[in-house]
Structure formats: structure tokens, C-alpha cells
Amino acid sequence: MYNSKIIGLGKYLPENVVTNDDLSKMMDTNDEWIQERTGIEERRWIKEGTDDTSAVMGAKAARMAIERSGLTKDDIDFIVFATMTPDYYFPGCGVQVQDMLDIKNVGAIDIRNQCSGFVYAISVADQFIKTGMYKNILVVGAEYHSNGLDKSTRGRGVTVIFGDGAGACVLSREEDTTKGILSTHLHSEGKYADKLIVEAPSIKHWVPQIMEAEEEDLSYFPFMDGTFVFKHAVIRFSEVIIEGLTKNGLQKEDIDMLIPHQANLRIAQFIQKKFALRDDQVFNNIMKYGNTTAASVIIALTEAWEQDKIKEGDNVVLAAFGSGFTWGSVIIKW
Ligand code: ACO
């Protein structure tokens, strides 16, 4: 058995910055409400007329990750792509990245686990490397939310939160099993699927039915029972971090860097307090990017690394919670 290790990190954020004040011109909201409840100051939304999509942004982040890893595209053995906003209903974005980066005909899969998407994706990739099946895997998380949001006052409880962006890493075989990804922990609770959902189009409720609905059919916009999700998030985040630490004989004091999914700054602050972590032990960038779901953990990890906040030997913890419900953690010896 091997371990896997992150050897290259990359990100891509669309240039177009949308501030809270910009949103207040589209809907009845304001900077104070958004900052107080979520910590978000601005987010990136793809500008109409540009070519960016989840797959395109993912490919840009992936190119950077491969370049920084010191490998070439020809060294990639497999692609795992996490998104809840794929370019097509099918096929998935993974195969598009294979084509866009001109990677040889390796396998490519998509992961559909929303905010936990990247944690699930890295866990899947880790298993392939552990067993020796593959040596170098490209793991991508990307989201293009802005085109699918309700930008009227009706959608304000959801729309102000989400942003567009992508991150990627190259995961590679590590012979020393005390280094790299030590363990991953995944969970789900499907009975709460309807608490955070985009219902349509689905095979049960396809486009003609939406168009023909007598009253305006809003099932293609994200629905979130925010307070319910918040309460579950803080519990599950804590549980799954403790599960990961315990598995590796670590205490909360051993955490050098926690990268929480960027769902809401208040959730991250709650976890920070609960684990008695200092500001320099938790990385947040939701203020700049909002919630980029499957891209959030990998964009944050990339920026923490770019800012020299992670050094060799550090215990790095990734944790996420989101729609499904799904949640998970990753414990890394950097
Ligand atoms: N601007 C101004 N007022 C607003 C806005 C807005 N953008 N949105 C809602 N309001 C109003 C509501 O209408 C409500 O008004 P009322 O009291 O008159 O009815 C009031 O503000 C409070 O609304 P709540 O929804 O109760 O606000 P809450 O404090 O719960 O904050 C939030 C909402 C920020 C969404 C929070 O619940 C949250 O962050 N939830 C968790 C999100 C999360 O973790 N998601 C998981 C990942 S996402 C994924 O997996 C896809």
C-alpha cells in the first residue's frame, strides 16, 4: 500500500468581481446583512460573453496545478472532477478536461457531491493511488453558479452566497506512509436531500414540463433551508474533524492548518472557537469568493499554500459539509 501526496496546486477565478453593493442593485439586500450573516464581501461571477464554464475554469486551474507539480500532462493517469454545475447534463466535465488539456485517453469521472465534492474527489483519488492502480491523478473542483441563480429578491437567501471559480491539484504516489494523505472520512444523510436542492431539470421533471407549468415553476433554482443547514453543518463539521483526528491519534492542538469548506464565515468561526484554534490555524477566503461549493476547499488550500501558511510536516485538515446532506474530512501530513 502507498500513500498519496499533493504535489501541485492551482486555481482560477473569473475576473469579474461582484460586490454586495452590486447585488443590492439587483435585489432587496445590503452589504451589512450579507457581511453580518455570512462574512462575504464580494464574489466572482463569470461575465456574460466570456468562454468560462465549469470545465473551462477547471482546465485552467488544472494546467496550473500540473505545471507546479513538475509533471507534464502525459504523466496524468486519471482525472476526478467535482462539480454540481456541469457544462452538460451528460457527459461530465472530467472528459472535457481530458480533451482540453490534451491528456492521453486516461479514465475520467465526475463526482456529484456539492459542497463536499472536493473532499469526496480527493478521497476517491487517494484510494486509486493507495492500491497502486494509478500513480498521478488530477483532481479538479469547479463551479459556475452565477448563471443558475435567482437574481431577484425572491432568491436573495441563496444567491448572495454563491460564487464561481475552480481549483485543482495533482495527487501523486508517496512511498512513505507517514506522509501525505493519512486518512479520509465520508458521510451522508439522504433524508435531508430536500433541504438544499436544485430539483429540475431532472428526468422526472424535464424541460417541457417546466415550460408548461401553469404557475411559474421555480424548481430549477437552488432551494436552501438555510437555518436548518447551518445547524447541521456546525455539528457534522465538528464530528468529522474529530473522527479524522482520532483515527490518526491526533488531538485538536495538533492541527496546524484547518481548511474548512467556505460555506459561511460564521460556520468556520464557530468551528475555530470549538477547537480553540488561533486565527493563523484556520484559512478563510469566503470574504473574496463566496461559496464556490466543490471548488471552495481546493481554492482555499491553494491560497493557503501560496501564502506560505502551510509548511512541510504540518498537520492539515480539510473538512466540508453540504447538500445531500454529505460531509467529510481529509487528514494530511504535509
Ligand atoms: N438580504 C437581506 N435579507 C435577507 C437576505 C438577503 N440576502 N436573505 C434573507 N433575508 C431575510 C429573510 O427574508 C429573513 O427575513 P424575515 O425574518 O423577515 O423573514 C431574514 O433575512 C432571516 O433569514 P434567514 O434565512 O433566517 O437568515 P439566516 O440567519 O439563517 O442566514 C444563511 C441565512 C446565511 C443562508 C444561513 O442560514 C447559512 O449560511 N446557512 C448555511 C449555508 C450552508 O452551510 N450551506 C451548505 C453548503 S451549500 C451546498 O452544499 C450547495
Could you explain the architecture of this structure?
The protein has 334 residues and is α/β, with parallel strands linked by helices. It has two domains: 175 residues, Peroxisomal Thiolase, Chain A, domain 1; 153 residues, Peroxisomal Thiolase, Chain A, domain 1, CATH 3.40.47. It contains eleven helices and 13 strands. The strands form four sheets. The protein has a five-stranded mixed sheet, sandwiched between helices. The protein has a four-stranded mixed sheet with strand order 8-13-12-11, with helices on both faces. The chain has a two-stranded antiparallel sheet with strand order 2-3. A hairpin with a 3-residue loop joins strand 12 and strand 13. Helix 3 crosses helix 4 and helix 8 packs parallel to helix 9. The mean pLDDT is 97. The chain binds acetyl coenzyme *A (ACO). Acetyl coenzyme *A (ACO) binds next to helix 2, helix 6 and helix 8.
Number of helices: 11
Ligands in the model, by name, code or SMILES, are: acetyl coenzyme *A
Approximately what portion of the residues adopt beta-strand conformation? 15-25%
Number of strands: 13
Order of helices and strands: EEHHEHEHEHEHEEEHEHEHHHEE
Note the gap between the termini.
Answer: 19 Å
Determine and state the CATH class of the largest domain.
Alpha Beta
Q: What is the CATH T-level topology of the largest domain?
A: Peroxisomal Thiolase, Chain A, domain 1
Q: In which order are the strands of the major sheet placed?
A: 1-7-6-4-5
Supply the number of structural domains: 2
Q: Could you say which overall geometry the principal axes of the C-alpha atoms support?
A: globular
Could you say which structural class the secondary elements and strand pairing correspond to?
A: alpha/beta
User: Would you identify the CATH H-level superfamily of the largest domain?
Assistant: Thiolase/Chalcone synthase
Tell me the radius of gyration.
19 Å
Mean pLDDT: 97
**Major β-sheet profile:** 5 strands, mixed
Helix content: 25-40%
